[in-house]
Amino acid sequence: MAATPADASSSSSEAVVGGEKSNKMITLISSDGESFEATEEAAKMSVTIKHMIEDGCADDGIPLPNVPAKILSMVIEYCNKHAADADDTNKHVADPADADEDDDNNNNNASAGEKDDLKSFDASLVAVDQATLFDIILAANFLSIKGLLDLACQKVADDIKDKSVEEVREIFKIENDFTKEEEEAVRKENAWAFNE
C-alpha cells in the first residue's frame, strides 16, 4: 500500500488506540510542502513523530523539514507495512509479553509466508539508487525509525562487502588523500584487514 498525498478525508485506514480501532490519521508534511496521511499507528513507528503526537503537536500536521516527498512516501509505505505486520503478529495475544514460547512459535510458523512477503517488500524498498538509499538513511535517522535505518544501512554494508578499498572509495566518492608512503604504512600496520 503506497503512501499518497493527502486529499480531503478520503482515507479510512484504521489505527490501534488503547486496544481499540480508530480512524485517527496524522498529516505529515514533507520538506517540499507535500502533505501525506498516515495512520497514527504507522506514524508512531517513528520515535520523533510519536513524541510530537504525545506532546499534542500533530493537530495541524507535522512538518518534516529534512524529508523530501519522494522519501517520505517510501518511509510511510515502510511504516504501514511494518505496523500492519506488528498488528497481525500480536492480534491473537492480549498482551504480547504474556505469551509463552509455544504461542510465539505457533505465530511464527503460521505467518512464515507473511514474513517472507515482508522481507521481499523490505528488499524491494531498498533496491534503489545510491542517492535515494542515502536519503532513506538520513530520513530514518532523523525520524528515529530503527528498523528502517538498520535495513538501509545493511543494504549499504551488503553493497560494499568484499569490495576493494578503491571500489569502496569509488562507491562513496571518497578522494584518497594519502601519499603512496602513508598508504603503504597503513597497509603494513593493518595487514590483516587487507588480505585480498
Automatic annotation (TrEMBL):
InterPro entries: SKP1, SKP1-like, SKP1-like_dim_sf, SKP1/BTB/POZ_sf, Skp1_comp_dimer, Skp1_comp_POZ. The keyword Protease does not apply. Residues 1-15 have a biased composition (Low complexity). One of its GO terms (biological process) is protein ubiquitination. It holds the Pfam family Skp1. It is found in: Nucleus. The keyword Protein biosynthesis does not apply. Residues 146-193 form the SKP1 component dimerisation domain. Residues 24-83 form the SKP1 component POZ domain. Residues 1-22, 87-115 are annotated as: Disordered. Its main location: nucleus. Part of a SCF (SKP1-cullin-F-box) protein ligase complex. This is SKP1-like protein. The lineage of its organism: Eukaryota, Viridiplantae, Streptophyta, Embryophyta, Tracheophyta. The gene is LOC123124671.
